[in-house]
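Reader question, answered in our methods column.
A reader sent in the components of a multi-part assembly and asked whether the whole thing could be modeled at once rather than chain by chain. We filled in our standard form and ran it. Here is what they sent:
COMPLEX SIZE: two components
ENTRIES:
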Amino acid sequence: MIKNDLFLRALKGEVVTRPPVWMMRQAGRYLPEFMQIKNKYDFFTRCRTPELASEITLQPIRRFGMDAAILFCDILVIPQAMNIEVEMKSNFGPFLPNPIRTQKDLDRVIVPDVNIELDYVYKAIKATKELLNNEVPLIGFAGSPWTVFCYCVQGQGSKNFDKAKAFCFSNPIAAHVLLQKITETTIAYLKAKVKAGVDVLQIFDSWGGMLSPNDYQEFSWKYINQIIEALKNDAPVISFGKGCWFALHEMGKSNAAAIGIDWTCSARNARYLTGGNKTLQGNFDPSRLLSPPDEIKKMVHEMINSFGKDKYVVNLGHGILPNIPVDHAKAFIDAVKSYNG
Amino acid sequence: MIKNDLFLRALKGEVVTRPPVWMMRQAGRYLPEFMQIKNKYDFFTRCRTPELASEITLQPIRRFGMDAAILFCDILVIPQAMNIEVEMKSNFGPFLPNPIRTQKDLDRVIVPDVNIELDYVYKAIKATKELLNNEVPLIGFAGSPWTVFCYCVQGQGSKNFDKAKAFCFSNPIAAHVLLQKITETTIAYLKAKVKAGVDVLQIFDSWGGMLSPNDYQEFSWKYINQIIEALKNDAPVISFGKGCWFALHEMGKSNAAAIGIDWTCSARNARYLTGGNKTLQGNFDPSRLLSPPDEIKKMVHEMINSFGKDKYVVNLGHGILPNIPVDHAKAFIDAVKSYNG
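And here is the structure of the entire assembly that came back:
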């Protein structure tokens, strides 16, 4: 079905001639064609208009020819559907004017019918699949329940998500109620995404690394694993946790198709900690794309040699930064395509 | 000389009946008596007035009886002495109006005579030693060169210090010049601190965890190790790197008297990665002080059992947060004192 199935084969652990490559946040602010759309339409208009979301999703594929597309969307569409107001403020980021901090706040949080509340996402998937014309697979994503919870409680981005953690440690029962509601909504949402056409799922646990190993198991991994278990027969699930090196052993034993690695964990440590047999994805430092293109090429080839070409998906260790020159992003992608052992 | 030398003995690796305890940022905003002084005097007045700095340093010792005091000061007194303007904005944090981003910026950075520029620190040390009356040892601290560099280039706090990293990766030669200048200033400063009376030194690498393992060696550890080597015969040096688990093996081989551990690294991993023979310090999650006092006590005892009572200094995994109730801080300290294997 899919013409370039390199990504799907790497997720299955098949032997390949070179690893596939895509970049987290590849449909983003470093692209001038993205900025043109961004300057015309606000954030949620871009998410909610299938023509815009699909166009944005395709932009990096047209320019660089990655081996996978990832649907333009946001992790905070989930709390929005759960009756938690979310604003996207320019030069600030997400802002939730009524964060969840008490039992009363919690009472107004619903587990929605995602088929109704998030139908614009499935429309965007269908529009994107048409544009993609089966050239490369399409990834759909969600935030981990813990990461979504962080925003719901903190109300905005944070260096340490102290209010979110305070809620967990002073009122763990209520915290688990909210986490479970987010998990159920996310599972239904991802199932609907697969039904609408995405080929692969990725869960982003951006803030799992704020937790101790024990707390991570209790407040984050438990819920991610529920999602993996619920979705494992629907589509391959990639689990990415930033700063979550300490949980790689547990992740390696899970039914995730692949584990995302950030740039603080060497390939050797990542292979060792995940048990040596899992497909891994990562882990180029996004800031290292500011190095000269020749150096990027050299570092990418070293990275592939370290991870090994099989059971490996080349990616950054987190999202691409807005200040990366497009020819540096191109150097990253081209370096993978020119790799020949 | 020092009546309670538990901390010094733990740093030497001697067998003790219980581990010593102190808390990073123990002289800080969670204390009402600190807030009284904070409301009257601005940040740099508190640092520069020996009567205030020494009073603030003693406050937590009087209230809780930790096994070590740490001189109230700031890591940014170093760039200030190097001719880089530093402001402390309320509800914002440090702000450097003229950050270092070009060769021209770099040219105006000096390696100062720290005996003159930072004489107020040594006066504060002498005043503090008098107040302490040899009850417990006094720690003096500095930021790691990389962490100080981050502020000098970024100009303020940041989630990812993208501008600081961009400077390193696009202009590594200039970056190393600045890092070396900071290192030299820091070494002279710490030598003068020991001469003025501090018993132990701690280096804080708050932002080392933003770097990949290779970049950490090149841009951070190399300079921290210069400091350790230069000071090892002057006083015990504790090296604390937040998020730097990936460098613990290297740190374990260094001449640091102890290695600070953050809460994402389990005691078992920390012992394994540092080689099993180093004094370790840490690593209670600061947010976990929001748990009920009974639970804090239980978790502290578990933590001591995990690290083992010897070659161990009980501490948090990072600074205490402003919103921690004082009786929770007390529960933390008391739990260590009541520990009996």
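What stands out: The two ends of chain A are 28 Å apart (CA to CA). Chain A has a mean pLDDT of 97.
Send us your own complexes using the same form.
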